[in-house]
Amino acid sequence: MANRDENAMWSIFGYLLSGLIFWGGIGYGLDKWLDKGIFTLIGLLVGISGAIYLVWLRFGRE
Asked: In what helix (H) or strand (E) does residue 25 lie, and over which residues does it extend?
């Protein structure tokens, strides 16, 4: 049982980190391309929101 909980914890951590890195990176790229300063923040917010939603879909409905 503890191994299953540990695997779930690492999966949740992976979802959160990858959402931030992926969408934050897209926002950063848009900032550099369009010479604006808001897209990194928007990308990070979209990334964390999407990651939390995926975690809820995967683990919250059990």
From this structure: helix 2-34
Separation CA 32–CA 54 (nearest Å):
28
Is the Cβ–Cβ distance between 48 and 19 less than 8 Å? yes
pTM > 0.85 = no
Torsion of CA 58, 10, 12, 61, to 10 degrees: 30
Q: Check residue 38 and report its DSSP letter.
A: S
Per-residue model confidence as pLDDT tens digits over 4-41:
778 889 999 999 999 999 999 999 999 999 998 899 99
Could you tell me the end-to-end alpha-carbon distance of the chain, in angstroms, rounded to an integer? 15
Parse the chain into domains and list their residue ranges. Answer: 14-60
